[in-house]
Design goal:
- There is one protein chain.
- This protein has one domain.
- The chain has 193 residues and is mainly α.
- Helix 1 runs antiparallel to helix 2 and helix 5 packs antiparallel against helix 6.
- It starts with a helix and ends in an 8-residue tail after the last helix.
């Protein structure tokens, strides 16, 4: 049982590192897209669709790797929410940047609450989930902020979503590092899988 828990903890650390690296890469490309070709470019539109699609896939992999979809209702629901968000972003990109920001705002609220639920459940098993709890809470607040901007007068752009991705990258990276240090301190010396 201890080996299984250690293997799952190791997997979770790797998962958090991958999530952080994806978000960092997404931010870099988003900034380059806005800088070089404008915030309403085709590349920006593709990036806006990719972000929730990636979240759906990542949550699906996470749920399947941790007991399956039935055992992980928060991740399962997050897969559904992120898939619906991906479809909504496709429609919003064709309409207006205000609609895109509103969709991202609603998604950030839902995914933040679901991340909070998953982190609270995992705390009992793996510990070191306080960072993911903070991330879920911050995501929920960021969603409210994005919704308020979506109804503002300044035209939104992909750069309004990049800070949200940046906080996500920070929290995933911090969780991965925290769990790595905790594993090292426990004497497992299993830094990475």
């Amino acid at each position: 049982m201890q080996n299984q828990s250690s293997a799952q903890s190791s997997w979770l650390r790797s998962y958090y590192f991958v999530r952080a690296l994806f978000s960092i890469g997404w931010i870099i490309v988003a900034i380059l897209s806005a800088t070089l070709s404008g915030s309403q470019s085709a590349l920006a539109s593709v990036l806006l669709v990719i972000y929730p699609a990636w979240d759906a896939v990542a949550n699906l992999v996470d749920a399947r790797s941790n007991g399956g979809l039935k055992a992980n209702s928060a991740q399962t629901f997050n897969v559904a929410v992120s898939t619906i968000t991906t479809l909504a972003v496709i429609i919003a990109v064709l309409n207006s940047p205000y609609a895109v920001l509103a969709v991202f705002g609603v998604w950030a609220i839902f995914s933040g609450l679901l991340q909070l639920a998953a982190a609270v459940r995992r705390w009992r098993i793996y510990g070191a989930q306080w960072v993911m709890i903070l991330s879920g809470a911050q995501s929920t607040l960021a969603g409210g902020f994005m919704l308020s901007r979506a109804y503002g007068t300044a035209a939104p752009s992909i750069l309004d979503i990049a800070p949200y991705a940046g906080f996500g990258a920070f929290y995933f990276l911090l969780s991965a590092v925290w769990m790595t240090v905790a594993a090292y301190r426990k004497g497992s010396h299993e830094i990475l899988p």
